[in-house]
Design goal:
Strand order of the largest sheet: 1-2
Number of helices: 4
Shape: elongated
Pfam family, one: DUF1648
Radius of gyration: 19 Å
Organism: Porphyromonas endodontalis (strain ATCC 35406 / DSM 24491 / JCM 8526 / CCUG 16442 / BCRC 14492 / NCTC 13058 / HG 370)
Protein name: DUF1648 domain-containing protein
Number of domains: 1
Keywords: Membrane, Transmembrane, Transmembrane helix
Largest sheet: 2 strands, antiparallel
Order of helices and strands: HEEHHH
């Protein structure tokens, strides 16, 4: 199990700042905000502004889930190889790194989505759609490679 670290503190601070900012701007937000964008980047659904708090709740829930996944006893992780005493520390470090990178990506992704809705953007850039799909795939592949490398004897 891992201890509280700087990444956890940073994520908590950003979550709190996001809640304060959302609360601060909430009265000036239009009654309906974009809640879905099509593949062409244009708004294709609107929701009441309370939807922004729902998005924030989903963000906090995902952060908590990924935080507690890191707290689970590592013997319950489904590694495709045996965890031995000599590889244990390196494999766990690579695993926690992957979890932290995914947590940071999810945090940034949701903050951007909330920002797009908050400022009622009529269109989101296509690069955002590509990043949304490619970055988690690349982070996961990189994490798996690092976990496998950590398993190999020196």
């Amino acid at each position: 199990m891992r201890a509280w670290n700087k990444t956890d503190s940073s994520i908590l601070m950003i979550l709190l700042l996001a809640a304060v900012a959302l609360g601060w701007y909430y009265p000036s937000i239009p009654t309906e905000v974009p809640s879905h964008y099509g593949l062409n980047g244009k708004v294709d659904a609107l929701s009441p502004k309370a939807f922004l708090w729902e998005l924030y709740g989903i963000l906090v829930s995902l952060q908590l889930i990924l935080y507690f996944v890191g707290k689970i006893n590592p013997r319950f992780y489904n590694y495709p190889f045996e965890i031995r005493e000599e590889n244990r520390e390196l494999v766990l470090r690579a695993t926690f790194r992957l979890l932290n990178e995914l947590r940071i990506f999810i945090l940034l992704l949701f903050l951007l989505i909330i920002g797009f809705s908050l400022f009622s953007m009529e269109r989101i850039p296509i690069w955002f759609l590509l990043v949304t799909v490619l970055v988690p795939i690349l982070l996961t592949i990189k994490g798996i490679i690092l976990i496998y490398k950590a398993n190999k004897p020196n």
